[in-house]
Amino acid sequence: xxxxxxxxxxxxxxxxxxxxxxxxxxxxxxxxxxxxxxxxxxxxxxxxxxxxxxxxxxxxxxxxxxxxxxxxxxxxxxxxxxxxxxxxxxxxxxxxxxxxxxxxxxxxxxxxxxxxxxxxxxxxxxxxxxxxxxxx
Length: 136
Description:
Blueprint: E1 5-11, E2 14-21, E3 23-28, E4 31-35, E5 42-46, E6 49-55, E7 58-64, E8 67-71, E9 75-80, E10 83-85, H1 91-104, H2 111-134
Parallel strand pairs: 1-9
Antiparallel strand pairs: 1-2, 3-4, 3-6, 5-8, 6-7, 7-10, 8-9
Helix pairs in contact: 1-2
């Protein structure tokens, strides 16, 4: 059995990560999923939250947004609207963004704006949770 699985994470900005990992933990719409080498075929929706990967015996923590994961026994391909390493999250800036989004929810806004504000709020909360959990 292979000891690693290929992981590729793509965002609108380009390829965020590409490399071999021992495992990856994803937050799916159905709950947390751990992907190991030789995992069964799976396509799942990702929700904003924490993604953990293990490479060379060390864990790396990411905040990710909404997206999809396509899993085979040899690779995991993730397409997401956001991926940020926990160490690079600016907690003060993200807290300000969260507060702005929360304030907008109290305004009279269209359904489209509401969806955008809720998505922004979810991304901000994902980043804050990862940063605070791992002290970056």
